[in-house]
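Thread: Newbie trying to understand structure tokens

Hi all, I'm a second-year student working on a class project, and my supervisor (Dr. K.) asked me to get a predicted structure for one chain before our next meeting. I've only ever worked with sequences, so writing a 3D structure as a token string is new to me. If someone could post the tokens and maybe explain what I'm looking at, I'd be very grateful. Here's the chain:
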Amino acid sequence: MINMEKTFHLANVLNNTPENLSPQETKSLIRDYHHADWMCERIIGTINDFEAELPDDMQAGGRLVSFGQTVQFSINDVSYWNPDMIVFYGTLPTGEPVRLVQHSSQLSLLLVALKRSNPKEPRRKIGFHSEDQSEQTDD
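---
Reply by user tm_fold:
Sure, no problem. This is what the structure looks like when written as tokens:
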């Protein structure tokens, strides 16, 4: 559903020159591309592009190598805490839930193809939520 308030606001901003904008409108035009939200968008896009090339019975997983150990997990979702933290939500091969909280400057993630635990259900796209979920998180 189109948010008419945001659409009107964007049209209003685009039709004004910077000197005619309020401080709030000017701030909404400025984005810090060093913040975690921008990195999160790029990670989600990369994961979704990777999954688009996989057969239906596979999904994106991550493999991390640290301290001599390798950890592999299914990636269920990605979020962020600005200015610099990325959070991966996933599941280990044993079914245990995991969360990886990583500083954006130290992030390296190897995407791997993993068998889906329930290939009969539609694959959930990373970074996309139902309208009900979006409304709950916008409060």
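A couple of things are worth pointing out once you decode it. The CA atoms of residues 12 and 21 lie 9 Å apart. The longest strand covers residues 69-81. Feel free to ask follow-ups in this thread.
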